TrEMBL record:
Classification via Pfam families: SGL
Similarity comment: Belongs to the SMP-30/CGR1 family.
SUPFAM superfamilies cross-referenced by the UniProt entry: Calcium-dependent phosphotriesterase
Binding site for substrate: R103, N105, D123
Keyword Zinc (UniProt): yes
Protein name: Gluconolactonase
UniProt organism field: Achromobacter spanius
Record: active site: D205 (proton donor/acceptor)
Molecular-function GO terms, alphabetical: calcium ion binding; gluconolactonase activity
Cofactor: Zn(2+)
Length: 294
């Protein structure tokens, strides 16, 4: 019997992104980018909570009991999210964008807890390769460029040992995934090479890596999530009842539930589930995210 993606809750996100499982409180947290909202779901209780943000957050990552946020103009921090309490992000490191109209997009902590995130021009129709992948330094509170010449950086993930970094460019003119060797001591990628030249259908969006080192990538525009082995072989395909799947993350008590966010385009048909969030149990287990200490 194939794993079935089941809808979670009734929200419809404009751009649901960056789901993160926090094992300490057994919750998923994610961002709805254009609606400037953080969401949290507790599978055990079934409860949802949300927090308004002052600006768009393209990605989030754990920082102690709180969070790091890649927002429109830089990397921010916020304290632990408490019910009925507002979220007040504080700027840690501003970003010098290469062009107007940019924001942070996909990002996460590496296996050592360093925050890595990419930027993009929000108007994808411009196809402007002004995006960059940055590493945030907690000690210096600044940003270092790791990769440039990106249109829509996405699909960022790290192998279980942290020595391979995956990165996609989800713009239709590129739509491919690279692998890099990753220096775990310095947090520097090198030796970029093609990993997935093209998905069977759709464009590569957000991603996760499981405990076996396999790479899970959302096929945006295709309603699919694909699992690739570390040598780049397509291993499994799962269908999601939303065309524009955005990002996936493992979690749950056994780290065996794949949580999937999606995007609701302006032309979504009435009743379409684009923008909903889903969960499925594909028979694989994920890895807990590393929290940043600084």
């Amino acid at each position: 019997m194939p794993a079935i993606a089941e809808r979670v809750g009734d929200m419809l996100c404009g751009v649901g992104e960056s789901p993160v499982w926090r094992a300490s409180d057994q919750t998923y947290t994610w961002t709805d980018i254009p609606n400037k909202t953080l969401w949290r779901w507790s599978p055990a209780s079934g409860e949802f909570a949300q927090w308004a943000l002052p600006r768009m957050a393209g990605c989030i990552a754990m920082r102690g009991a709180g969070w790091l946020l890649g927002m429109e103009d830089g990397v921010y921090e916020c304290d632990a999210l408490l019910p009925d309490a507002p979220c007040h992000p504080r700027l840690l490191a501003p970003v010098a964008h290469a062009a107007p109209g940019m924001r942070f997009n996909d990002g996460r902590n590496d296996r050592q807890g360093r925050f890595v995130a990419g930027t993009m021009v929000m108007d994808m129709g411009r196809a402007l390769a002004a995006g960059r992948l940055y590493r945030y330094s907690a000690s210096a509170r600044d940003l270092t460029v790791l990769v440039d010449d990106l249109i829509v950086p996405n699909g960022l993930a790290f192998s279980p040992d942290g020595k391979t970094m995956y990165l996609s460019d989800s713009h239709p003119s590129r739509a491919l995934v690279w692998a890099f060797d990753y220096d775990v001591d310095s947090g520097t990628p090198h030796n970029r090479r093609p990993f997935i030249a093209a998905l069977p259908a759709g464009r590569p969006d957000g991603a996760a890596v499981d405990a076996d080192g396999c790479y899970w990538i959302c096929g945006n525009d295709a309603g699919r999530v694909y699992r690739y082995t570390p040598d780049g072989r397509l291993d499994q395909t799962y269908t999601v009842p939303a065309r524009k799947v955005a990002m996936c993350a493992f979690g749950g008590a056994g780290m065996d539930t794949l949580f999937i966010t999606s995007i609701r385009p302006a032309d979504a048909a009435p009743g379409a589930l684009d923008g909903a969030v889903f969960a499925l149990r594909p028979g694989a287990r994920g890895l807990e995210e590393t929290a940043s200490a600084g």
